[in-house]
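ok, trying the design again with the full structure, not the truncated one.
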């Protein structure tokens, strides 16, 4: 019985200490964009193409190196590209060292390919626009990023000048239809 009380007490202490840490990490909703259409132009050297969607809009797509059959793509091909963007933000404690890393992976199949990147960086909050429900960050090498904030309570937890660690998971899949 004494052992059980000791274990429960230890778990309670760990739980109480962990709650403030959980409050500092915010996972933003994943944004998914899918583009379907016809390849209108291709720049093989830059691995870029313009896709004309069903509603007549043109969308520029940079094709990752993992799409190995990209040289076989041609104007007029039907294509589908899906881009997922998941972001996790953590308020950075004072004095903690900055981070700036990127890891990539890729897969290739018969007529499609995908690339994924996990980017971790330290950025500073440079603007908070409550009326637009958005926060703007500036990171290494002048990198700038604005993101819509769904949870308005976030604005009460941060201020301009705060440093945050951003983990940005992105993946792009390109497939001929």
């Amino acid at each position: 019985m004494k052992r059980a009380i000791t274990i429960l007490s230890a778990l309670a202490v760990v739980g109480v200490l962990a709650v403030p840490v959980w409050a500092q990490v915010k996972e933003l909703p994943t944004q998914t964009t899918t583009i379907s259409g016809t390849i209108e132009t291709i720049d093989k050297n830059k691995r870029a193409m313009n896709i004309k969607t069903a509603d007549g809009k043109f969308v520029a797509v940079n094709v990752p190196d993992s799409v190995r059959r990209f040289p076989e793509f041609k104007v007029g091909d039907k294509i589908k590209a899906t881009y997922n963007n998941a972001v996790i933000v953590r308020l950075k404690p004072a004095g903690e060292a900055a981070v700036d890393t990127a890891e990539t992976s890729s897969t290739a199949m018969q007529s499609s390919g995908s690339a994924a990147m996990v980017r971790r960086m330290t950025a500073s909050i440079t603007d908070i626009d409550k009326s637009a429900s958005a926060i703007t960050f500036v990171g290494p090498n002048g990198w700038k990023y604005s993101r819509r904030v769904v949870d308005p309570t976030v604005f009460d937890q941060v201020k301009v000048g705060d440093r945050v660690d951003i983990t940005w998971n992105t993946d792009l899949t390109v497939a001929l239809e």
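Keeping the full-length input from now on. Residues 2-24 form the longest helix (23 residues).
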